[in-house]
């Protein structure tokens, strides 16, 4: 006979695992507005980093869509629509790192609907489709926009509810064209219309980089007229019922090692012109048909997005997103907005990071400037790492592969940089075989160039980056991946880091020179030996390397070096204020450096690292002192780091407060995060932070709701990920839960910390009771079968 409890558990299990019901865990998320985005043009009186005129309306009001490679910002206007197009490989010479992202094109559509009524525009996160609808002179107009990954195309459908009522002029524009000149800043381009097709393209002088976009117009009813009399080609649509536009774009960029090694003009030499690729994409979609293209997009996108459900409230205010945000800022905190902001981070990551194209950059996949702020780069002293934090715990691990591919492409240049770095700073340990010096990555990097460490951030930037690689393994437990990619990457980085260490009189090994990222003392970057960031990032890298070697049963002579050096790093130090020190020579908190500096590099060992945790209570207490001294207000990403750190301190109230601070002080109307200006890292860091409040697994066991704030006293989630490749779901009420569902995706041994272990029971998907081991601290362990799901319950 089954016990009542067992039967109840089975019913609950069926309930939780049914995909139909699991849908109920999700709100139908959308950002929406009752007016179009403003478009008042660049403001030359205000600048966005280093002199670029600020396009405030683009940054605050446009709606982003993307497929990893291409991003578009949609204004949803009724007079003249503006669709700003970005392609991540489209670059020019910029202020930073000898290059960076530049705006690909602007697509204008003149509707001249100046008296629109019943207007609204939405971005539907569940399907990644943006819509616009309004009434004008008794005709209802509808538009939808999406960016397809499988078909590498932007699909747009525009329709009127009266036959033949649709009239508009499609008028793309190539921005920032300049004659080729000695300064190398030229960009050629032309826009030509022929029948139902507009082709636009040219060459970026600095890289001799060809680029091309095509827009195909498919009209249902009415007529098309191509017009090339205005300098840039346009197509007039007259009297149509509906129109489909397909937009494809590409450049001659190919991601490979040459990009990072060759001089600017040689990088893309010999690559094929993008014309063929773009033409094929347009032809393919035209014959596939709009509905099929749209369906493929939805199927591809929902397979990622729908993995995670989070439900914190039923109270979904009927307010446009900008007003909801304004209310939030003025103190009326909507929990729905907190939920939406979490899922929006997942949406943005899917839209800006897919295999086959470059990783998500500082602005994700979106940039309207001639020179993107900070080059639209991959800044390795926190920003790019933060971009990928949510990929692991929010069940989007494979999105990290675009970063891995980028990293592997620049590896050869990174080996060269390592050789130069060691030759300069520690020549006595330089190995004559280049590869034996490993590889390195400094702060500055983008689609075209990478840097070595130095200036304001020490070599720990590489170890910080490696944490992502280790977590990719730890969350997937994919041994093949570990063997083929992650271990060699770790080994190379560890070899480099080992050569940045210099033996001191007392036997410790310290990074020299060393910098805690961007920390400033007496008005200049503070140069030292063995700052906590550099030392602790080496420590994390060595520990991960040794673990990887053990799993793969690898014997490499370097492992002995790592093991030996690990004991001499003396990485984490406590100062006289009870703080984790940032610098070894610091006594009291704040002795050296800015008191409230945005970076919290010395706590990277706590998050994303794991050396400071509840397993090291003294360090954890000291980390809390540091967090309190550093303060709760900073730039967007900096507060997101604090949010994750407070989550790791298991302080739900503080983590939530930081999350609230991000939304209240550093979030724009389109819910993009801000530094200022717009930087996407805050979105990603905050999304990771929410997951970190709801599930943790860095202490060798899973803990659900480790940092639950009282504001989220009831709710449920499904699909969040824990290390070991477990997918976890839980519902809670009054801050308490008594049942969990766990799916084991790799068949690993599972360990969970529960509030208590009284009457603990684990049932597999057939309702069979599984043998458990109960360890100290209410940790329950049990073996799992790959693919099976388990219900864990206990008396509460
Ligand atoms: C890092 C940060 C800055 C900024 C820049 C893009 O260098 O210290 O605050 O986010 O990246």
Topology of this structure?
Blueprint: H1 4-17, H2 19-22, E1 30-33, E2 43-48, E3 52-54, H3 56-61, E4 63-66, E5 70-74, E6 80-87, E7 91-92, E8 100-101, E9 105-110, E10 117-124, E11 129-136, E12 139-148, E13 153-160, E14 166-173, E15 190-194, E16 197-204, E17 209-220, E18 223-227, E19 234-240, E20 242-251, H4 257-261, H5 275-288, H6 290-305, E21 309-311, H7 321-329, H8 335-352, H9 383-393, H10 401-425, H11 460-476, H12 479-498, E22 501-503, E23 509-511, E24 520-521, E25 524-525, H13 532-552, H14 557-566, H15 617-630, H16 636-648, H17 652-665, H18 681-694, E26 695-696, E27 702-704, E28 715-722, E29 726-732, E30 739-744, E31 750-753, E32 761-763, E33 773-775, E34 779-782, E35 789-793
Parallel strand pairs: 27-31
Antiparallel strand pairs: 1-10, 2-3, 4-5, 5-6, 6-9, 7-8, 9-14, 10-11, 11-12, 12-13, 13-20, 14-19, 15-16, 16-17, 17-20, 18-19, 21-28, 22-23, 24-25, 26-27, 28-29, 29-30, 30-35, 31-34, 32-35, 33-34
Helix pairs in contact: 8-18, 9-11, 9-18, 11-12, 11-13, 12-13, 12-14, 13-14, 16-17, 16-18, 17-18
The structure holds alpha-L-fucopyranose (FUC).
């Amino acid at each position: 006979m089954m016990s009542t409890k067992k039967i109840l558990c089975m019913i609950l299990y069926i309930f939780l695992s049914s995909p139909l019901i699991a849908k109920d865990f999700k709100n139908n998320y959308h950002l929406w507005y009752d007016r179009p985005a403003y478009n008042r043009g660049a403001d030359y009186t205000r600048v966005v980093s280093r002199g670029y005129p600020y396009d405030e309306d683009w940054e605050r009001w446009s709606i982003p869509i993307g497929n990893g490679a291409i991003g578009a910002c949609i204004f949803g206007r009724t007079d003249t629509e503006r669709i700003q197009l970005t392609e991540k490989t489209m670059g020019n010479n910029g202020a930073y790192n000898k290059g960076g992202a530049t705006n690909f094109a602007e697509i204008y559509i003149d509707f001249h609907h100046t008296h629109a009524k019943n207007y609204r525009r939405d971005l539907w996160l569940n399907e990644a489709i943006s819509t616009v609808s309004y009434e004008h002179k008794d005709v209802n107009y509808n538009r939808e926009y999406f960016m397809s990954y499988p078909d590498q195309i932007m699909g747009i459908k525009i329709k009127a509810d009266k036959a033949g009522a649709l009239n508009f002029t499609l008028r793309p524009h190539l921005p920032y064209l300049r004659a080729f000149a000695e300064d190398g800043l030229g960009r050629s381009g032309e826009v030509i219309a022929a029948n139902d097709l507009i082709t636009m393209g040219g060459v970026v002088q600095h890289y001799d980089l060809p680029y091309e976009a095509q827009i195909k117009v498919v009209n249902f009813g009415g007529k098309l007229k191509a017009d090339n009399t205005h300098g840039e080609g346009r197509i007039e649509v007259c009297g149509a019922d509906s129109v489909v536009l397909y937009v494809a774009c590409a450049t001659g960029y190919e991601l490979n090692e040459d990009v990072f090694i060759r001089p600017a003009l040689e990088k893309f030499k010999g690559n094929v012109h993008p014309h063929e690729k773009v033409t094929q994409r347009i032809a393919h979609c035209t014959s596939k048909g709009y509905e099929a293209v749209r369906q493929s997009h939805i199927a591809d996108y929902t397979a990622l997005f729908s993995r995670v459900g989070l439900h914190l409230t039923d109270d979904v205010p009927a307010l446009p997103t900008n007003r909801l945000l304004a209310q939030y800022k003025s103190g009326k905190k909507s929990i729905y907005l907190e939920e939406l902001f979490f899922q929006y981070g997942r949406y943005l990551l899917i839209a800006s990071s897919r295999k086959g194209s470059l990783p998500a950059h500082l602005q994700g996949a979106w940039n309207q400037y001639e020179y993107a702020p900070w080059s639209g780069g991959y800044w390795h002293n926190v920003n790019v790492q933060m971009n990928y934090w949510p990929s692991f715990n929010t069940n989007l691990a494979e999105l990290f592969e675009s970063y891995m591919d980028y990293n592997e492409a620049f590896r050869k240049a990174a080996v060269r940089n390592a050789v130069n770095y060691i030759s300069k700073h520690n020549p006595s340990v330089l190995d004559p075989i280049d590869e034996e010096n490993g590889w390195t990555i400094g702060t500055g990097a983008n689609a075209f160039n990478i840097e070595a460490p130095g200036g304001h951030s020490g070599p720990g930037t590489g170890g910080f980056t490696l944490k992502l690689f280790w977590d990719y393994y730890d969350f997937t437990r994919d041994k093949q991946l570990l063997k083929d990619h992650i271990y060699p990457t770790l080994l190379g980085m560890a070899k480099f880091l080992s050569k940045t260490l210099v033996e001191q009189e007392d036997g410790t090994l310290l990074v020299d020179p060393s910098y805690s990222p961007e920390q400033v003392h007496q008005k200049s970057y503070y140069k030292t030996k063995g700052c906590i960031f550099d030392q602790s990032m080496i420590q994390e890298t060595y520990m991960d390397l040794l673990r990887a070697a053990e799993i793969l049963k690898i014997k490499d002579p370097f492992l002995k070096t790592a093991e030996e050096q690990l004991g001499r790093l003396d990485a984490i130090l406590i100062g006289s204020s009870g703080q984790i020190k940032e610098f070894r020579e610091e006594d009291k908190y704040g002795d050296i450096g800015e008191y409230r500096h945005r970076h919290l590099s010395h706590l990277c060992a706590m998050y994303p690292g794991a050396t400071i945790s509840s397993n090291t209570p003294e360090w954890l207490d000291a980390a809390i002192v540091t967090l309190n001294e550093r303060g709760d207000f900073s730039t967007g990403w900096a507060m997101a780091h604090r949010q994750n750190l407070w989550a790791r301190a298991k302080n739900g109230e503080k983590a939530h407060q930081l999350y609230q601070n991000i939304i209240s002080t550093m979030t724009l109307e389109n819910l993009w995060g801000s530094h200022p200006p717009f930087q996407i890292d805050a979105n990603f860091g905050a999304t990771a932070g929410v997951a970190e409040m709801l599930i943790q697994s860095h202490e060798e066991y899973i803990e659900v709701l480790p940092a639950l704030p009282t504001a989220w006293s009831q709710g449920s989630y499904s699909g969040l990920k824990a290390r070991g490749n477990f997918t976890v779901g839980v519902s809670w009420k009054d801050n308490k839960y008594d049942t969990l569902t766990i799916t084991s995706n790799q068949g690993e041994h599972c360990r969970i910390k529960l509030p208590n272990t009284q009457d603990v029971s684990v049932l597999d998907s057939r309702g069979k009771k599984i043998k458990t081991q109960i360890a100290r601290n209410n940790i329950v362990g049990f073996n799992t079968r790959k693919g099976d799901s388990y219900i864990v319950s206990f008396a509460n």
